[in-house]
């Protein structure tokens, strides 16, 4: 048994799908299946019942789910505490993308500070370009930002990915739909997120397809955008997040718009505090699988 097998098991248990779990873990589905099979063989029990339509935990699997999570948590805590004892530099300067969920970042930072209470965190916010400049100047130790397809001079690590969806009020006529065609945005009251990373791309799509949403509000504040959506003021295109009170998320049926979010670090950054935060954040998103961590 190894730690990766425990992570594989928890991912499948949380998502109820080998396909979704492999995507969250950024590994191939065959590798995931082999890891689960070896774990079941070593434990001598079946952890999952598999049917054509679904996968669900056996009674043994439900019992082992809590144990596996406890083992991983204890290992991470012990490893971090040991490394932290030798850490002298206690200031961590991070840059966060403007459009990251405040609730998600609050839980992440709060969890880290509870363990490493004498680390002082200094945070700056910005868009993708601004954060890269802050890194280049040495104003921040690492950035949590969007990772593109290009090659970065800085070190990078993917944390999670999100689909862009249409956010509508729960009482909106479209809220009962399972998905939405891009053309259905035509003439709808629309809240434009001015810091949206794909804002220019969306405008190009609107123009190319002759779709003209009726812009009723423009804002640089995503939290205000969510609040306005919940009141029925308009709809908005934003990254899929966990439950937002009064808001439903509709995936596009004819578009595949996603963003990958991760760390961007200065090359050869050997700060132990930076390494501790990276490992803590990676574990945080792995355990949450980003299904419920970005409210």
Automatic annotation (TrEMBL):
Protein name: LysR family transcriptional regulator
Domain of life: Bacteria
GO cellular component: protein-DNA complex
Family: Belongs to the LysR transcriptional regulatory family.
A GO term for molecular function: DNA binding
Protein's organism: Symploca sp. SIO1C4
Annotated ranges, domain HTH lysR-type: 1-58
Key words of the record: DNA-binding, Transcription, Transcription regulation
């Amino acid at each position: 048994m190894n730690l990766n097998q425990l992570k594989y098991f928890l991912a499948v248990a949380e998502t109820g799908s080998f396909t979704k779990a492999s995507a969250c873990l950024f590994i191939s589905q065959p590798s995931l299946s082999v890891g689960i099979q070896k774990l079941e063989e070593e434990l001598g029990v079946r952890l999952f019942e598999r049917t054509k339509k679904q996968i669900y935990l056996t009674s043994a699997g439900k019992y082992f789910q809590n144990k596996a999570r406890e083992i991983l948590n204890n290992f991470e805590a012990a490893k971090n505490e040991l490394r932290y004892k030798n850490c002298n530099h206690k200031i961590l300067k991070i840059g966060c993308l403007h459009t990251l969920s405040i609730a998600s970042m609050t839980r992440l930072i709060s969890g880290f500070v509870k363990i490493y209470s004498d680390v002082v965190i200094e945070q700056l916010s910005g868009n993708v370009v601004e954060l890269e400049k802050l890194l280049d100047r040495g104003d921040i130790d690492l950035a949590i930002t969007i990772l593109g397809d290009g090659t970065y001079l800085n070190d990078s690590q993917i944390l999670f990915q999100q689909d862009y969806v249409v956010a509508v009020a729960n009482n909106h006529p479209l809220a009962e739909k399972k998905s939405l065609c891009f053309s259905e945005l035509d003439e709808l009251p629309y809240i434009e997120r001015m810091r949206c990373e794909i804002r220019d791309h969306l405008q190009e799509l609107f123009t190319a397809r002759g779709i003209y949403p009726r812009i009723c509000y423009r804002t640089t504040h995503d939290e205000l955008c969510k609040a306005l959506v919940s009141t029925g003021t308009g709809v908005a295109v934003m990254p899929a997040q966990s439950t937002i009170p009064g808001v439903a998320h509709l995936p596009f049926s004819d578009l595949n718009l996603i963003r990958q979010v991760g760390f961007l670090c200065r090359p050869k950054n050997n700060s132990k505090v930076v390494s501790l935060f990276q490992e803590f954040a990676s574990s945080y998103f792995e355990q949450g699988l980003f299904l419920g961590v970005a409210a």
